[in-house]
Amino acid sequence: MDYINAFWVGGAICALVQILMEKTKMLPGRIMVMLVCLGALLGALGIYQPFIEFAGAGASVPLLGFGNTLFKGVKEAVDEYGFLGIFLGGLKASAAGISAALIFAYLASIIFQPKMKK
To answer: Per UniProt, which keywords does this protein have (predicted)?
Structure first.
């Protein structure tokens, strides 16, 4: 039953995101950032962890799960290091390569002017 729950929950998340991409003028990068932020927000509210326990990889693999992982890492690092944990937590909780990709993508979005779809 774990595999079935992971399959339908992950599929539902992906289908909803695909609909969002097709029906709005939002750029895919902005949708991905929105998903990561939403995952962190749901983690902060304590909603996402029970969802992961129910759906397993179906909830932890999509970008919502990545946002939740970043939140948990920052929370633990703040408890351990104080203010410095804000900067260390996300890097410690997730792979350094993924965190670097996010940082450089954010810097690129500041330097270059992304345009909305027409």
So the answer is: Membrane, Transmembrane, Transmembrane helix
